[in-house]
Amino acid sequence: MKKNIKEALTGLTASETPQGLPIPGRDMVENNAGGFVFKLDEWKRLDRFLILGSEGGTFYVSERKLTAENANHVLRLLQKDGLRVVSVTVEMLKSGRAPKPDTAIFVLALAASKGDDATRKAALAAVPTALKTGTHLLKFADTANGLRGWGRGLRNAIQLWFKERGHETLALQLVKYRQREGWSMRDLLRLAKPVPADEVQGKLFGWTAKREKAEWAKADVAPGVKALDFVWATEQAASLKLVAEKADSDEAKAILAAANVASTKKLVELIVTHRLPREALPTEALNKVEVWEALLQEMPMTAMIRNLGTMSKVGLLKPLSEAEKLVASRLTDAARLKGAKVHPIQVLSALRTYATGRGVRSSASWTVSQKVVEALDEAFELSFGAVEPAGTRHLLALDVSASMGWGEIAGVPGLTPSAASAALAVVAARTEPWTATMGFAESFRDLGLTARDRIDEATRKVSGLTFGGTDASVPMTWALANKVNVDTFVVLTDNETYAGRAHPVQALEKYRQATGIGAKLIVVGMTSSGFTIADPNDAGMLDVVGFDGATPALMAKFAKGEI
Ligand code: CA
User: Fold this and answer.
1) Please, which residues have CB less than 5 A from ligand 1, an ion?
2) Beta strand pairing status for 488-493 and 394-399?
3) Domains held by the chain: number
4) Distance of CA 89 to the CA centre of its chain
5) pLDDT single digits (tens) 251-303
6) What is the pTM of this model?
7) What's the 314 CA to ligand 1 centre distance in angstroms?
């Protein structure tokens, strides 16, 4: 016992405390690896959850447990300041800072169910504006139904969602997102029973809820209401089924082929005239190059990014084609990316899949257009928005210990925290003029990463390198031992450090004193845990969330001393 007390107190006079013990006098918590770290600010933990999600769990914690931990955390915050939870969540949904809205939708539903009166009201009031698409609404309804059941408040919120959509937006949402999570737009309309604000809305509601035919909008009657024409056109498209060209005689086959040619031509006309999305088309039509060519003209950015493989597979997007030129120019159009709120993760996910020439969940394969790959690589960088570089000396330190090779960032297949951190490091290296990149686990590791690496290749390079235990003080001790001058340490980690003889903050302090450089530390959290190696009381340290769309700009400002 005496020996233990003595051991615990040596840190009071020494500047080094093993990571398996808290720094004496400091309020620290034990992480999942048995090391002591700081507790992350509770609102920052909410940010991590909203942005990174909990899919795949972490090396230490199962997905189920990580989700439960975070949900409990949200419940605590709801008790503390429910309105703040709602406003943070709504901001996350509106800004597109998170790769996927799913976690924010879950939190909003939680607030609408488990918050106090004012919180529940605020959460439900946000439904019409914060939930942009029919998918979001269906997911919200599914979760809210599970948590609280249908009540007047929920019904009113859903009524307003439908009533506050413009005619054309409403028609598009009704067509595109008929069903999600076992819920359909029809179910919602039948349960919420919104009273239509006008005749067009009434017709759209009736078409969905009562499966009324779009007779009222026959093209030859020419009602001239775009939303109604659109719905009519989707009915026409659905009836144009393409048939398998299989028959006993060549003559019969030719007849079937001719019928398909005629149907495809009509489909293309409908797509061009009424701007039909691919969700409105019969499945077989999506094998036709003419159909994709027509779709591509008005295709929204996110849909285009998701369908690159398919467009290559059907033979539209191929080397030296017009489609390739169009896609590449759209992908590298910063204003377009910003306007469509394309998230870097969406681009990275597309790049990682597209460049391999094979689908992740299907057996589809295609000829890769290198122009598209290059454009995606550029789009990834552009999707973070314009960042004014700080110009300080940056050491980008990637945690490549074994634990970083586990879990999935925002549910992207194979995108582990280490792979994702490599993508972020390459973007930082391209943005900041003065950087060095290193890997660490229990010791230094050369990663061979440069600003010139293509993003998807960088993620693969690092995926294969994860190894061993974790000591997050290595970047600072390494820089000191090698006399490397660093103004800004950027450590990308899951904060599950345990193996060092000193805590990262102690190593930083030592570095500052020995070099005279007032070095800063930015901790980029790569999992939705509640831990951090950054000292919350030190203004020279900052916590950010990996793959928060706002992170690079925030890092540069901090490095410059503007925050
Ligand atoms: Ca680790």
Assistant:
1) 401, 403, 470, 496
2) parallel
3) 3
4) 14
5) 999 999 999 999 999 999 999 999 999 999 999 999 999 999 999 999 999 99
6) 0.92
7) 43
